[in-house]
Specification:
By secondary structure, this protein is mostly helical. It has helices at 12-29, 35-61, 77-102, 111-133, 137-155, 161-194, 206-209, 218-235, 244-251, 254-276, 285-306, 311-332, 335-366, 382-396, 402-416, 420-446, 464-482, 488-498, and strands at 6-9, 64-68, 73-75.
């Protein structure tokens, strides 16, 4: 049922992305003696962004759409969902980074380079937020490309050979791929402008382009969709465009890995969904193609994860697999599919951030990240082991945790659409996920120690600022599993945006 939409002019969409970018610039100008101020300023900034995101959610749940600069910035339920996710995960990552990076100052990084880290972190968050609130199809590409540049420098932050190699690969592959997204965005604008139904710059506005899609030539639409899929799909880690992802996630500092997997690849998938979904009513062939791509991604990702011994690479390939679920859900194009896909996007942001933090805690305490070198950490790291177990069960879809409900929604949407083959692949992938994650947890925390002849006696639980975000995320995984209706109002409206059923 369509709902009334009230357009409300507000400066908040501009503040939400300009604030972290301004703070990032300020941090880069603070001398090394102010590193404590830099750390806590990043925490404060992300907390403010989260508060602004919560205010946006409150407004869109009342039926409002926030606009700024003559519609250039626009926040509906889908945008508000992404803003609050980026703000929340950004806050947890900022808190986590305070002790995590302080321990690395004498090893991998110098004091003067810490301000570069915090400045780039703020720019990274700011560019992601910009991409979520812009309504201009070309500026969407610019924002995505800006996230590539800022996050690429963060991936290479340790400045050793593996990090530099991963950063170089990341920047080269994504810059080339995102160029295809630029072609797609320009073609989308050109097709909308050629209809002569939009005046002036309105042909650049995504919210307006949706209204003239039936008049865009089908051949132009096919090329546009292909370019958008290659460009934004590569950034989202969709197979077979995923080779950059394992190296980048593995070599980046853990707080950056949390943001890469927790929100950045989802922001790229948001861009893909925001642009491609406008073709759903006119171009039904998109549904089948996205389903094939989604099921291929989920199955390939988890099979590659099964072969990993490096914990961060295992989680990286698992992220590829989980993005396949989101793409499959959104690709169905129905309300239930979009709801399940967005619920999976939300849930994955929570439990994958949690799992990367747990692995980062293991690296912090042991200086190791290969399962073959670890084992028996449950007694020394009880909080980390309990949080990892919660995250592993959530990502595998065990009830009563949050992953169960989003995956069930996707299964039902696939079955409802008659795509039984896709539902079977999705369920099979979940079984493989159970094996991968519980095997990793057992070998690291409950198995026999394999510390190359050394003892685990020196291993200790991580500082409170590291385990507190993990406990909060684990609690949210359990809360959304027990009370999934808590996020229903926002997900309902966001799903209707994608499924073209109104606000």
């Amino acid at each position: 049922m369509s709902r009334d939409i009230v357009t409300q002019v507000s400066i908040v969409p501009a503040i939400v992305f300009l604030l972290p970018m301004l703070m990032g610039t300020v941090m880069l100008l603070i001398p090394g003696a102010g590193r404590q101020l830099q750390r806590w300023l990043s925490v404060l900034t992300t907390a403010v962004v989260l508060g602004l995101g919560a205010g946006m959610v409150s407004q869109v749940l009342k039926g409002s759409v926030l606009t700024t600069w003559h519609g250039e910035l626009r926040v509906d339920a889908l945008s508000a969902l992404m803003v609050i996710l980026i703000g929340g995960i950004g806050l947890f990552a900022s808190l986590y980074s305070v002790p995590y990076l302080a321990a690395r100052i004498t090893e991998d990084v110098t004091v003067c380079r810490m301000r570069i880290f915090h400045g780039l972190l703020m720019w990274f968050l700011g560019t992601m937020l910009w991409g979520c609130v812009t309504n201009n199809v070309v500026m969407l590409y610019v924002a995505i490309e800006a996230t590539t540049l800022t996050s690429g420098l963060l991936v290479a932050f340790y400045w050793n050979r593996p990090a530099l190699e991963a950063g170089y690969k990341y920047l080269i592959l994504l810059t080339i791929a995102i160029t295809f997204a630029l072609f797609g965005c320009v073609l989308l604008y050109a097709g909308a402008a050629a209809t002569n139904k939009l005046a002036g710059g309105d042909a650049l506005l995504i919210s307006e382009i949706r209204n003239v899609v039936p008049w865009i030539p089908h051949r132009a639409m096919a090329i546009t969709i292909a370019f958008l899929l290659i460009g934004f799909g590569t950034k989202a880690g969709i197979a077979p465009f995923h080779p950059w992802l394992p190296d980048a996630h593995a070599e980046a500092p853990t707080p950056v890995s949390v943001l890469l997997s927790g929100v950045m690849i989802k922001m790229a998938l948001y861009a893909l969904a925001r642009t491609v979904s406008i073709f759903y009513p006119t171009w039904p062939q998109v549904t089948l193609f996205l389903l094939v791509l989604g099921t291929f991604t989920m199955l390939l990702g988890i099979l590659l994860a099964l072969a990993q011994d490096d914990l961060k690479r295992l989680l990286a390939y698992s992220s590829v697999s989980q993005m396949g679920y989101v793409l499959a859900g959104i690709g169905v194009g129905t309300y239930l599919g979009c709801y399940g896909g967005l619920f999976q996007l939300l849930n994955h942001a929570l439990y994958k951030s949690l799992l990367f933090m747990c692995v980062g805690a293991v690296i912090y305490a042991t200086r190791m990240r290969r399962m073959g070198d670890l084992g028996g950490l449950r007694k020394q790291m009880p909080v980390t082991s309990a949080c990892f177990l919660v995250g592993a069960l959530a990502i595998a879809g065990f009830p009563p945790l949050n992953g169960f409900w989003s995956k069930l929604s996707i299964y039902l949407a696939l079955a409802q659409a008659g795509m039984w083959w896709a539902a079977v692949i999705a369920i099979l992938t979940s079984i493989f996920t159970i094996v991968v994650m519980l095997r990793a947890g057992y070998r690291v925390f409950w198995g026999e120690p394999h510390f190359n002849g050394t003892s685990t006696a020196a291993v200790r639980e991580v500082p409170i600022l590291m385990w507190l975000p993990m406990v909060v995320l684990a609690s949210l995984c359990a809360l959304l599993g027990i009370w999934p209706q808590g996020v229903y109002p926002l997900l309902d409206r966001a799903a209707r945006v994608l499924a073209t059923l109104g606000q």
